[in-house]
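PT: before anyone asks, these are the final sequences, not the draft ones from last week. 448 residues across everything. Please model them as a single complex and drop the result in this thread when it's through.
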Amino acid sequence: MKLLKKWLFAEPHVARGEIFSALDIGSSKIACLIARSENEGAPRIVGIGHQLSEGMKQGGVSNMEALQYAVGQAVSAAEHMAGETLQRVTVNISGAHLLSQTVDIELPLNGREVSENDTARILAQGQTMVPEDHLNQPMELLHTIPVSYALDGQKGIRDPLGMTGGSLHAQMHLIAAGFGPVRTLATAIARCHLDVEQIVAAPYASGLACLVEDEMDLGSLVIDMGAGTTSYAVFFDGNIVYAGGIAMGGAHVTNDIARGLTTSIAHAERLKTLHGNAIQSQMDERESIDVPLVGEETPENANYLPKSHLNRIIQPRMEEIFEILRARMDKSGFNEIAGRRVVLTGGASQLPGVRELAQRMLDKQVRLGRPLRVARPSTLSSRSGGASFTGLAESTSGPAFATTAGLLAIAMQPELASSSGASNFGTRTLSGGGSAMNRIGMWLKQSL
Ligand SMILES: Nc1ncnc2c1ncn2[C@@H]1O[C@H](COP(=O)(O)OP(=O)(O)OP(=O)(O)O)[C@@H](O)[C@H]1O
Ligand SMILES: [Mg+2]
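LR: through. Structure below.
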C-alpha cells in the first residue's frame, strides 16, 4: 500500500483518552483544535479556539509579542473548552521560502532481500540532506517522503520490502523551509510554554485534509489561498511530490481595494466579501456600492460607486496570483503529473468567481475544497454523541480551516509527516510501529 495512504486510510488503534492538538498560525487567523480519542479509539474534536491573527505577515512572524499573545488566546480557548492543558502542538509553516526537491538515494543490496532496516537507512540518509535554496539561504528540513523505489532498474515500486536485487534506488521528496522563519516560529511557540511536536508545510496539511483518495492517486494540485500566502502542493500516486508557497493572498486583494477606493482596510474587507467577484462582468456597471472614505465614517460622506470599480481592482490581483502559480508549475516539471485536477481551498477561495478564474488561468478543472476529515455535526451527533459541540464544529469546517484539519490529522497520525527532518523540535522519528498506524481511518469514516 502507498505509504501516505497506509497512514491516512487504515483502521485506528489509539489509547482511549489520548489527546492530539493542531495549531494553525495564519496571517489572518490563529486556530487551535484539540481532539480526544474516545469510543473505541475514534477521536473527536473536544476543543476549538480561533481568533484574529496578530504578529504575522505573509506567513512569517512580524511581531513576536503580538503573535505570542494571539497564540496564547487561541490555545487557552481550546484548552478551556476541552478541559485539558496542552503540552505539545503540531503547527504549520507557509510562505515563499517553502522549498521542495526530489532526490535519488542508492543503497547496495548485493543480492539480499530488502529489509525494514534498508528502507530505514534510506530514510535516514534522506534526513541528512537539505534542499538547496537558489539564494543560498540556510534551510531547515521539514519532511522526507519516500515517493517510489527502483530495484535494479525496475521502476515504480511502492514497497520494496521482501524483494531481492543488486541495488535499491529511492526517490525522496524533501520539503524544507527557511531556517530563520522555522526557528522564529519555534521560539514563539516555546515562549507560549508549548513544545512543537512537528512543524508541517501548510500545503501538505491542506492536501491531506481536502483531497479524496482518487485525487491523491491520479494526480492533483491543491491550492490553499490564505490571507498572506497562497501555498500549493502536487499529490500523485498517493504521495505529495511537490510543494511551495507564494507570498500573496486575500490580504493583498483587500489592500488593493483600500488603496484604490481610498477606504479603510476594514471597509475594503467588507466590500470584498459582500460584493467582490474575481471576474468582472457587465452587470457590475449597473450595481452600486457604498464606499466610506478613510477618516470619514458617516454614511453621508461615502462614495457611491458602480461595482465595476471594485471588481476592476480585484481581478488583476487574483490573476497575478494564478499567473505566478502557473509559471511555478510550468517550471517545476510537475504540471503534467498534477493532471487537470485542482482543488482550491483556504479562506480566499470563498471569493465568488475565483473558481472560474482559476480554471481559465490554469487551464484545469477546479473544484472548491474544504476539510473532509473534520468531524461534522451530523456524523458526530449520531455516532459519537457529540451534539454538545455541533455549532462549533460547523464553524471550523470551512475552507479557511483546511490546514488546521490537516494538522490535526498529522497530530493523530505522526507517521504522515514523521519521515521528517532531523530531530529538531523533539520530532518523533519514523517508527513504523503497527499500533500507532491507523488513527485517521476511523475518524475519516465517521466524518464522511
Ligand atoms: N467570503 C469571502 N470572500 C472572499 N474572501 C474571503 C472570504 N472569507 C474570507 N476571505 C479571505 O480569506 C483570507 C483568510 O483566509 P485564511 O483564513 O485561509 O488565511 P490564513 O490561514 O489566516 O492566512 P495564511 O494561510 O495566508 O497565513 C482573507 O484574506 C479574507 O479576506
Ligand atoms: Mg492558512
